[in-house]
DNA sequence: GATGAATGAGGGTTCATTCAT
DNA sequence: TATGAATGAACCCTCATTCAT
């Protein structure tokens, strides 16, 4: 058991996508209800209405279940970013940032409990990381976007700026979702996140 | 086993501070070497040169060991912030922020491996949280500092701004320590963090 | 799992002798490489390039695979003995014994690894046992041979003598193949085995 | 699971010899009743009136239980041989051999069922092997004995002769105990074994 | 017949925790 | 208080076997 599972093996591609889906759903539900500590492969199988053996047919071990959920979550985040950046309508830097933040926050509304557990117990897994192909793709899209707004940006190293930007988005959205004190309005927090991103990028500019 | 242990009970205060120290050191070393998955109370006891029974004399359960380490780490962070803010010399807002970030990064140099494990496997534990007395203290100190620089700050809600600021510091320092790509110089990252904090606070200002 | 499988059912006779052959070969190879503990029906099927279902088409259960291999091995031993005894050329008692021992040792040269595993993990299976038809046949042939040399033999009960003789051959050849210390030359060991058989039979003679 | 367990770790020496004894007894009884396949650590623990944890306190794994039983059996065999050879009364070669064989057969009367299982499922484990200190000791004692009777022995290489002798004793006693057909009287078989040993040694003599 | 996905009982092992000494 | 032997619930994973296609 390791709290930070590396995706060992992807579920073998099977046309039994349905079974894989069942299993992941069961994993997600159990994770939401009982946390990592309360999750075990037999329970997942039972919940999925499947035998343990079948779980191991598609997932090499317990942690790969979590890893798969993470990958899926990560993919949703990539998709959210990509969807925003793919939009051809001209937008100001701040609008772009706001759209990205908004998309990300919205993406976290689906299965918020699951995301909470995933992020709380296995952080640093849902961020578009440059290590994964999809993550790298997001990285490059954002970099392009920054280049397109070069003149509004104070940071000289856009590569570094992209990395910092992603880290900020990820962790601030994370914080907003995870443990924002009730006394702060969601909209205010959202605006603050955009302020932070925007402020960071412009900082250093003459 | 729960990846995110709540500090159930603080170690009973005993003259045997020495034993408590031994136990925590052992826990830290094992955590560094083997991660949470490889840690168990028997191993901790053996490494500390005491009996399991003694571990349970001072710590109610396994997780409280981790919690204690977290608290200690958190305390170091509080102390770092407090030390900076307690400094009476007049400083600009940016200087204050830079000093805080620097102090925090420096604080992470001690037992970096331990911090990595703690933050990787049990995030959101080292931040001065408003929930703890010490954390609340830090929170208030920062809030005061912001108030002292009210005119340089664009954010209208300083309470919210303080919370965002702490979240940013925490997660950006975290990211810097944990997984900064080798191609980015530490000094550049540090400056970026200050830019981000500074940029955020100023944003929204007319 | 039972270390000493009784051949429950012989492979149903099928035209697909080829498939049976593939399966047994796969079993043998896996046994050689990984021992009984590392053998499982799925692996056998995979190695044989057939489906598990097919394995069960021809073999009622896992152990019957081992049993079949044993039978085959036993048959080779029977054949070796029979071939020697069928030889019409007149030979002295010692020559007959020497020929049998030699034939048996030679028979163990084929697939020595497999034989080692079979004999190490499932002993008492390769001997021409009186319980099997073929074994009984060998038993009777040897008995006849002894009767033909009645005058050179000290043992009064030739039935018993045959049994002892077979046990000796089997176990000494076994020992020679399995764990003869390197310091003993194969030829010397072989001669010793013949000495033992010969010495035994003559013992008790006036 | 491996049918031929190497004694991994000896039970830690503990004054809880009693518990170790209970556990081994339980293992033996279960082995007798259900064979290796029917033995499992939980059953052993239950039968021993002990918790599984305790079994693992003294034995590193399942197989070490079997290994311990084997060692014990082997030790009994060593002891039997040693007792005979330590006897100072002058005896002829044949008498010595007969005494050894007898001692060994007698030693197999204790817990015959257990011995059957041990030898059937894990052969080559009860023989005084030169690899173990005790085995080497037996080996040397027998060698000395043969040297003392040098003039009666036809074999020129007494080292080799000792090895063959041990192999013969071991396997013939084994066969006698394991699967002697009912039609042969025990006394006759015993005499045959002595004949075989005696005959072998004298063979080759002028 | 052939296939191989699905089954699920079963078992070895770990380790947090207790408690008699 | 300190000890550490003892406990036993819990869990991951394997693999012989089945059966619908």
From TrEMBL, chains A, B, C, D:
Keyword field: DNA-binding, Transcription, Transcription regulation
Residue ranges annotated for the HTH tetR-type domain, each copy included: 17-77
PANTHER family xrefs: HTH-TYPE TRANSCRIPTIONAL REGULATOR BETI, HTH-TYPE TRANSCRIPTIONAL REGULATOR RUTR
Organism in which the protein naturally occurs: Massilia atriviolacea
Source organism, top-level taxon: Bacteria
Name of the molecule in the record: TetR/AcrR family transcriptional regulator
Stored Pfam families: TetR_C_15, TetR_N
UniProt xrefs under InterPro entries: Homeodomain-like_sf (IPR009057), HTH-type_TetR-like_transc_reg (IPR050109), HTH_TetR (IPR001647), TetR_C_15 (IPR041669)
DNA-binding region(s) in UniProt: 40-59
Entry GO MF terms: DNA-binding transcription factor activity; transcription cis-regulatory region binding
Residues annotated as signal peptide: none
């Amino acid at each position: 058991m390791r709290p930070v599972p590396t995706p060992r093996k992807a579920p073998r591609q099977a046309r039994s996508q349905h079974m894989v889906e069942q299993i992941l759903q069961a994993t997600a539900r159990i994770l939401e209800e009982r946390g990592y500590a309360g999750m075990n492969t037999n329970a997942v199988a039972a919940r999925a209405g499947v035998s343990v053996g079948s779980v191991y047919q598609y997932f090499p071990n317990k942690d790969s279940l979590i890893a798969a959920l993470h990958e899926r979550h990560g993919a949703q985040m990539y998709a959210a970013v990509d969807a925003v950046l793919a939009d051809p309508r001209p937008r100001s830097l701040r609008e772009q940032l706001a759209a990205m933040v908004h998309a990300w926050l919205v993406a976290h509304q689906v299965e918020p409990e699951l995301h909470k557990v995933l992020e709380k117990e296995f952080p640093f897994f849902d961020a578009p990381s440059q290590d994964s192909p999809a993550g790298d793709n997001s990285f490059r899209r954002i970099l392009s976007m920054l280049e397109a707004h070069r003149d509004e940006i104070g940071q000289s190293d856009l590569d570094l700026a992209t990395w910092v930007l992603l880290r900020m988005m990820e962790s601030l959205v994370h914080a907003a979702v995870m443990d924002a004190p009730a006394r702060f309005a969601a909209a205010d927090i959202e605006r603050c996140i955009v302020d932070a991103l925007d402020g960071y990028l412009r900082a250093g500019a003459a």
